[in-house]
Amino acid sequence: MHDFLLNAYKSFDFVYPKFYKMDALSKLGWLAAEIMLNDSFKQKSYKSEEIGVVLSNANASLDTDVRYFETTKGFASPSLFVYTLPNVVNGEICIRHHFKGENAFFIQEKFDAEFIEQYVNNLVNNNILQACICGWVDVLKEAYEAMLFLVEKNNAANSVAFTAENMKSLNQINQK
Amino acid sequence: MDTLIADLKKQIVEQLNLQDIKPEDIGDDQPLFVEGLGLDSIDALELIVLLQQSYKIKLANAEDGPKVFYSVKTMADYIRANQPKIA
Q1: Which of A89, A139, A168, B75 has the lowest tally of Cβ within 10 angstroms?
Q2: Which chain A residues are closer than 8 Å to B52 by Cβ?
Q3: Is A82 on the interface with B (CB under 8 A)?
């Protein structure tokens, strides 16, 4: 999996030296956000405070927690320790793109489209955010899943309505 | 090249996972932080671990950190001063 993440980074010709220092969860979320946002996001339409990140997964930061625990038998690794919280992936995405809006990370057994729809809609409809990156980023050992959505209050051309049903449909497509 | 300095450059690249940088690219007197290699506070902690793991040296005074970790050469000087067996 680490080879996959590194090869993905190189194949897109990204230049962001800090990528190498990230844990697998942050690398995966960072890559997914980078690919999605580079494609069509007009970030200049928004203030930094108007863009947020709401993510979820099943395994929190367990993949890194285990690796960090192994180092505590000798010299505990500071660079692993800083990744022993799952919401650090939010931070890495926000730092990269200078997002300063609301962000949250939820631990759930499986992707809960209804919950994400409700939570993000609440942020957008109350003008806390104008745009939000949301979805699922999960890593444990060699298993990984990433599925991100870009939600904008003002619909972009050819956009798909932000509904739980649409997210579930896209999720099913990804799993086929 | 000074063996200790060469070893330190290799260890810094490995310990800090600086995959875009080759050990020989690091200048002996090049600042390691901010305007130099761009290391951050977490990297500083990793360098402290490196001193303890590889050279059995504990930084006696945290306030000495900026001087000790200014460059590879200042690190080497500190190691020599605190571990006389290394040539």
Answers
A1: A168
A2: 75
A3: yes
